């Protein structure tokens, strides 16, 4: 067990698994894997400004949700972002 798991190098299986997850999510959402990766990268960058997060375990899902008042489906973005720590004081 590493003292600093953040700095450990990902193995190829872990990288392939993450890429496959992004492809599956992108396929369900009619959105390209590149766009999904850009969304994930932007979310990591923004949220990291305010709290310490585990960027390796972030899960992004895009689903189609049926509107209750009509037959339309709208895309919905879900993000599961594990938070390690929230600083007591502001960063700025």
Automatic annotation (TrEMBL):
A Pfam family matched in the record: MinE
Listed GO biological process terms: cell division; regulation of division septum assembly
Family matches, as InterPro entries: MinE, MinE_sf
SUPFAM superfamilies: Cell division protein MinE topological specificity domain (SSF55229)
Alphabetically ordered keywords of this record: Cell cycle, Cell division
Family that this chain belongs to: Belongs to the MinE family.
Role played: Prevents the cell division inhibition by proteins MinC and MinD at internal division sites while permitting inhibition at polar sites. This ensures cell division at the proper site by restricting the formation of a division septum at the midpoint of the long axis of the cell.
Annotated protein name in UniProt: Cell division topological specificity factor
Organism of this sequence: [Clostridium] celerecrescens 18A
């Amino acid at each position: 067990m590493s003292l600093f798991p953040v700095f450990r190098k990902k193995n190829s299986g872990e990288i392939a698994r993450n890429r496959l997850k992004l492809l599956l999510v992108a396929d369900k959402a009619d959105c390209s894997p590149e766009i999904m990766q850009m969304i994930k990268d932007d979310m990591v960058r923004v949220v990291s400004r305010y709290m310490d997060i585990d960027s390796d375990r972030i899960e992004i899902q895009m689903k189609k949700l049926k509107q209750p008042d009509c037959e339309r489906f709208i895309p919905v973005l879900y993000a599961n972002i594990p938070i390690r720590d929230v600083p007591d004081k502001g960063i700025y």
